[in-house]
Specification:
Blueprint (H helix, E strand, L loop, with lengths): L2 H25 L13 H28 L22 H5 L4
Amino acid sequence: MKRTPLVLALALCSFAGLALSLGQASADGPKPCKATKFDFPQVKAACDAGGVDAAKKLMKSVVDKAKAAGNEVKCNACHKDLKEYALTPNAVADLKPLL
């Protein structure tokens, strides 16, 4: 019976530590986009609002739209790599009709 308060106190401390660590991660904000020049205001707005995650969400909607129109589009059709997200020479022209 005497161990119950100790177990409860340890559980509360663990929960508080977890809450603090999760709070710190979200306080840092979203991971910013690597691009500094934008050809489309929709992409800039997504990057400004939610960083890389928002830009990925926008690009996913573009891919879904292209697939619905019968085009098989993949990320590497417009991006040289998926780490730095550098654009291929045709990226802007290919994206324009999809936005």
